[in-house]
Each structure stands twice: as structure tokens, then as C-alpha cells.
């Protein structure tokens, strides 16, 4: 997505403020969802191994430990480079989608510049397929890139588009996707349902970022929630199953608590404290305090128990 005016990068993840003059106070929808992210260790390993194999310097580096270390070091950041490049591409595609909506609303737009930026990187197919989808589905935009806020649970986010399609109110989130070997755009992740239902549950929407003006959220009553995968070969819209929305909302609420608990745990102080060794001689104290049982005088000993001392009975 493009960069919302009130979004801030913080040590706690992406957060939102109420105006341009106020500090951020609540996490973004995507930050909350990221609390439940799964491990990507396998993917990181694959990307690193693939980068080594494809590195043109590998052949020359064989037999040279120093050159091999250089190849390995560069390959170790392959997944981060891929992630960053994908994020930048996604920003360009989202920007184009936003400009299409602004033009349809007769508002100022930069559609030509957005398309030129995609074309300059050989990504114009994303724009071509999006234009085809927009026309085929007869999308009637209402509000592109609209920032929303939920004060009760404490989060905010920016929806890519509110529109009407086939007469039905829709909340839309775009996902830029690669194409698989069959020429089809790759599947959306189910997490998009959490993202959309959190947007639907908003209480306010932004009117003016500078003034910090908000109004009651007007589009949360039974909208159609659409995740739209935008690829170079096709655009595939997917509808959130209304039967699962409560479960995804409950999961989002639980992840919001996880985010807060993580911050509270850090604010509480150090989790681990050093343990010094015990004072010299402290290990002898218990032995000194313990006393041996007193011996029973021979003259008072019970004859029946004298066997315990090894004495024969009379």
C-alpha cells in the first residue's frame, strides 16, 4: 500500500496517530496481525541456498575460502532483498490502483506517472490486468486509501478502497501477487480476511489528517469483503466467507492483546537478573546447625533395643 499520512514506523511496529501533530498511540491492523506470523526459516534457507547456486562468482570462488565467505555473506541476505523488492513493487502497484480510483472520482491524480513508474521496471502488466478487471467488474469507487480507527480495541489501519460493485458495497484490499507455473496469479493468504474484518469493525474514518478530524465510520454495515490479487497475468478477486468472520475477528482481538502484553512485558523491567555466588563458607552453615542425635546411656537403654548396638541379649 502507499504510505498513509498518520502511519509511523516505531520500535513496536507500524503505529498510527490521531493527527499530524500527535504521536502514534495505537498499532496498525497489519502490525497486530503480524503477532501471529509463522516461521519462515525454511523459506529463508531456500532463498540463501538458491542465491549461492545462482551467484556468477561461485565458480571463481571455489578453492578460495575468502571468496567463498563473500559469496555466502551476500547470499545470507537474499530473502531480505527479495522481501524489500517485493514491498517496493507492491507500493508501486497500490499507487497505480489508487490513481485509477481518484481519476474515476474526478479528483486530482497522477495516473500517468504511476503507469510510467511501472513501465520503467517492466511491470506494466500489473496495470494492464488491473484496468481490465476494473472495467469488467464496473467498479464504482467511493473512497480510496481511507484510514480508519477503532478506539474500543485500540487499532487503526488504511483500507485500499471502498467501492460499489454490482450494486453491493465492498471493502477491498489489494495484494500484489506473482504468477505460478500455470500462468495463474498465486493464492491469497487467509490473513486478508482478518485484515478486512478489522477494517469493517472500525468506528471512525479520517477526514483531515492535519486537523485530526474524524467522522463515524459509514461503511461497516454488512459490506462485501474482497481480497483482490493483482498479478501480471490476471486479477483474481476473492470474497471473505461470511461464516468465518466471527472467528477471524476473535483471533484479531487475541493478537491485539498479544501486542499489548509484549509491550507491557518490556516496560515491566528486566526479565532475567544475575545471580551472584554465595558468600564464602555459606555452604558449611547447614552442617553446623545440624546436630547429631544424642547417644542413649547404657544404663538407661532398653534391653529389647540393645540388639541395635550389637549387644547380645541375656
UniProtKB/TrEMBL annotation:
<dbReference type="InterPro" id="IPR011335">
    <property type="entry name" value="Restrct_endonuc-II-like"/>
</dbReference>
<feature type="region of interest" description="Disordered">
    <location>
        <begin position="277"/>
        <end position="314"/>
    </location>
</feature>
<feature type="compositionally biased region" description="Low complexity">
    <location>
        <begin position="281"/>
        <end position="299"/>
    </location>
</feature>
<protein>
    <submittedName>
        <fullName>PD-(D/E)XK nuclease family protein</fullName>
    </submittedName>
</protein>
Amino acid at each position: 500500500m502507499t504510505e498513509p499520512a498518520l502511519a509511523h514506523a516505531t520500535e513496536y511496529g507500524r503505529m498510527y496517530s490521531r493527527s499530524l501533530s500527535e504521536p502514534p498511540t495505537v498499532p496498525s491492523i497489519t502490525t497486530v496481525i503480524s503477532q501471529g506470523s509463522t516461521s519462515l526459516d525454511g523459506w529463508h534457507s531456500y532463498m540463501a541456498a538458491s542465491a549461492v547456486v545462482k551467484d556468477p562468482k561461485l565458480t571463481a570462488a571455489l578453492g578460495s575460502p575468502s571468496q567463498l565467505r563473500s559469496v555466502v555473506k551476500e547470499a545470507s541476505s537474499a530473502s531480505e532483498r527479495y522481501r524489500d523488492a517485493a514491498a517496493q513493487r507492491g507500493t508501486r502497484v497500490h499507487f497505480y490502483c489508487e490513481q485509477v480510483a481518484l481519476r474515476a472520482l474526478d479528483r486530482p491524480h497522477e495516473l500517468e506517472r504511476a503507469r510510467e513508474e511501472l513501465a520503467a521496471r517492466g511491470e506494466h502488466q500489473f496495470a494492464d490486468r488491473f484496468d481490465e478487471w476494473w472495467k469488467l467488474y464496473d467498479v464504482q469507487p467511493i473512497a480510496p486509501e481511507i484510514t480508519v480507527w477503532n478506539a474500543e480495541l485500540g487499532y487503526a489501519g488504511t483500507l485500499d478502497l471502498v467501492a460499489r460493485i454490482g450494486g453491493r458495497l465492498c471493502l477491498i484490499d489489494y495484494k500484489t501477487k506473482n504468477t505460478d507455473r500455470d500462468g495463474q496469479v498465486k493464492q491469497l493468504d487467509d490473513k486478508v480476511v482478518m485484515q478486512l474484518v478489522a477494517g469493517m469493525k472500525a468506528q471512525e474514518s479520517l477526514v483531515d489528517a492535519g486537523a485530526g478530524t474524524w467522522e463515524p465510520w459509514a461503511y461497516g454495515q454488512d459490506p462485501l469483503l474482497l481480497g483482490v490479487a493483482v498479478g501480471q497475468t490476471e486479477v483474481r478477486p476473492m470474497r471473505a466467507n461470511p461464516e468465518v468472520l466471527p472467528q477471524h475477528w476473535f483471533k484479531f482481538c487475541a493478537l491485539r492483546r498479544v501486542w499489548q502484553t509484549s509491550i507491557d512485558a518490556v516496560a515491566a523491567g528486566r526479565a532475567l537478573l544475575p545471580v551472584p555466588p554465595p558468600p564464602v563458607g555459606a555452604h558449611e552453615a547447614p552442617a553446623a546447625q545440624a546436630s547429631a542425635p544424642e547417644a542413649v546411656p547404657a544404663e538407661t537403654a532398653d534391653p529389647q533395643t540393645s540388639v541395635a548396638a550389637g549387644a547380645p541379649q541375656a
